[in-house]
């Protein structure tokens, strides 16, 4: 099954797409979703979609910005842009970036299924066989430590993720992902999120507001930051700050 990621800030739209499309008949599965481009960039390495359905109008990182960043790192990714704006400028920019297709909202089931079927036929088998990694740069313990030092310097950059870091160091992303998990006992995404949340806790102790902390820790989308923080600490950012005050 080919994996699809739905990226739209409207929960109702994401739910509608999951409900109305005959995914299995198309040989597709919805492997993940995101409510913003920022969240999508953070999740995409874990989901590894073949196709992304992306809304243009999203806060913090719009669909065009996401497409530009994603296609630089994942040239085989097929992106279908969804928009409520019948604007030739948007269409022209999408074509320039290499977006696979461009559809107008409101969504029509037949049209989107035909588009998904057409785009699906263009998907390349992007998996890299283990035997093809023999010529890759060996990723040693010291190399992983250098990556961790790099993350300590760059964690505030919301655009970094596994693929961009692997490209920065000249590593194959799949091989790098496995080596990182072996060395650190957690995935790259988990490590980076944990590091960011520890920095967020430091800022919370200093009394920083949540939206500023989100920006300073490389998660520019406050909603996504809030979900990450609660998952990490078990309480919301504001609840955590209240606990700190009570402790004092």
Keywords:
globular; 12 helices; five-stranded parallel sheet; 248 residues; single chain; Rossmann fold; Arc Repressor Mutant, subunit A; alpha/beta; 2 domains; 55% helix
What does this structure look like?
α2 (37-47) runs parallel beside α3 and α3 packs parallel to α4. This protein folds into 2 domains: 2-120, Response regulator (Rossmann fold, 3-Layer(aba) Sandwich); 135-248, Orthogonal Bundle (Arc Repressor Mutant, subunit A). The protein is built from 12 helices and 5 strands. It has helices at residues 11-20, 37-47, 63-73, 88-97, 109-120, 141-154, 162-169, 173-184, 188-205, 210-216, 222-233, 237-247, and strands spanning 2-7, 28-34, 51-55, 78-83, 101-104. It is globular. 55% of the residues lie in helices and 11% in strands. It is of the alpha/beta class.
Topology of this protein?
Layout (H helix, E strand, L loop, with lengths): L1 E6 L3 H10 L7 E7 L2 H11 L3 E5 L7 H11 L4 E6 L4 H10 L3 E4 L4 H12 L20 H14 L7 H8 L3 H12 L3 H18 L4 H7 L5 H12 L3 H11 L1
Parallel strand pairs: 1-2, 1-3, 3-4, 4-5
The count of β-strands is: 5
Poorly predicted regions are none
CATH topology of the largest domain: Rossmann fold
* Overall helicity: 40-55%
- Into how many domains do the coordinates divide? 2
* CATH superfamily label of the largest domain: Response regulator
Instruction: Indicate the overall shape.
Output: globular
CATH architecture of the largest domain: 3-Layer(aba) Sandwich
| Beta fraction | 5-15%
The main sheet comes to: 5 strands, parallel
User: Could you spell the SSE succession in H and E letters?
Assistant: EHEHEHEHEHHHHHHHH
**Structural class, from helix and strand content?**
alpha/beta
- Supply Rg: 19 Å
């Amino acid at each position: 099954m080919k994996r699809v990621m739905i990226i739209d800030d409207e929960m109702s739209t994401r739910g509608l797409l999951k409900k109305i499309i005959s995914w299995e008949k198309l040989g597709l599965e919805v492997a993940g979703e995101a409510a913003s481009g920022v969240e999508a960039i953070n999740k995409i390495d874990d989901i590894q979609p073949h196709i992304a359905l992306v809304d243009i109008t999203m806060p913090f990182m719009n669909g065009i910005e996401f497409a530009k960043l994603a296609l630089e790192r994942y040239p085989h990714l097929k992106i279908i842009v969804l928009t409520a704006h019948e604007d030739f400028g948007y269409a022209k920019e999408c074509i320039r970036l290499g977006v696979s297709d461009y559809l107008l909202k409101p969504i029509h089931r037949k049209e989107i299924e035909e588009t998904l079927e057409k785009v699906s036929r263009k998907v390349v088998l992007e998996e890299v066989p283990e035997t093809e990694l023999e010529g890759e740069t060996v990723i040693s313990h010291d190399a992983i430590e250098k990556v961790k030092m790099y993350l300590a310097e760059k964690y505030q950059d919301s655009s970094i993720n596994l693929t961009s870091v692997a490209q920065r160091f000249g590593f194959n992303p799949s091989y790098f992902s496995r080596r990182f998990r072996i060395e650190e006992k957690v995935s790259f995404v988990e490590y980076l999120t944990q590091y960011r949340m520890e920095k967020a806790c430091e800022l919370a102790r200093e009394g920083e507001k949540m939206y500023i902390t989100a920006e300073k820790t490389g998660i520019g989308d406050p909603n996504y930051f809030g979900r990450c923080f609660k998952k990490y600490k078990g309480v919301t950012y504001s609840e955590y700050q209240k606990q700190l005050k009570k402790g004092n």
